[in-house]
Amino acid sequence: MHIDQVIRERRLALGLTQEELANKIGVSAPAVSKWEKGVSYPDITLLPALARILGTDVNTLLTFSVTMDPEESRHLYEKLMTTAKDAGWQAAVDLAEAQIAHYPSMNSLQLMIAAFLQSLKSQIPEADWPSVYQQIVAIYQTAEKSTDLPQAQVAAQSLFYLYLKEKDFDAAEKQLTLLPPEVVAYNAMEPKLKLQRGQLMDAYISGEKLLGTGLGAVSLILNVLTQVGLADHQLAVAKRYADMSQKIDNLIPISNPYTLEAQLKVAEASNDPNQAVTIIKEVLANLNQPQPLVLQHLTPAKSKEQVSLKEAQRQLLQIFTADPEMAFLQKSPSFQQLLHEYNL
């Protein structure tokens, strides 16, 4: 049950009109009406008093905090993109706020919405961006306090990269000190312990998880070095790092976004959108690759409703289209043709 339903049912059970409830809480009757319609939500500072007046507690009042399965999250992301396109950035921001209010304890949703709001920057007037930026910061700050440690770490890292992208360097430096250091040698102790105990399957699983994490870290470092080369106007150096990342991916075939980003940045610096399209086509064609043999003991995560290859490819193209850093692709007729093939 959502909070709008909770408020309405409790109010009616107590025989209160919307105006009477509004007077007791110190807001207007239209405000209560909007709460019950799900158009807006009570300020967090009003929740204790509202819960008391309705004869309940804050925890019960917030029992609407259900989760959303992966398929629902995908549909929400598409709805956010459609809203931004058809009704404008403000409508999309309002929808995002409403969804976070509906699911305040769902960290994966918060992270997805924060990333979406960042993608809207090119559509938002410069004068309005600071307020949206602060909303994104607040979302990440909430998520990094989660009891779900992996989600909290993703939020903390995402906040660092947000500060970095916004050139808020002092905040980024402070955030960096809060991130736990990832020490591969220390992490490798777990599969070593499993091995010594004779727990071979557990040793495989923990070791392969570490391998995946390590490969991601290496690709991230090579991605950064690629960008350093580009910033230094050393295209050949940047290309060398990007190619090295690609060779690692070819050796151990794990779809790695950092390798893809490095290649696309080199293509952009080379003013070669057609090369970028070629890279994207290769990625789209490889989306249905089986689990690499070096990770054969890990069970791939599956959503309740399997997404077809065509739909997965379409979703990836939507991400490229929404990313302002990929704007150079719009100059390529072959990219436009690719979008047309997927009805985008």
TrEMBL record:
SMART domains the UniProt entry points to: HTH_XRE (SM00530)
Keyword tags: DNA-binding
Statement: the UniProt record of this protein carries the keyword DNA-binding: yes
GO molecular function: DNA binding
Keyword Zinc: no
CDD domains: HTH_XRE
Protein name: Transcriptional repressor DicA
High-level lineage: Bacteria, Bacillati, Bacillota, Bacilli, Lactobacillales
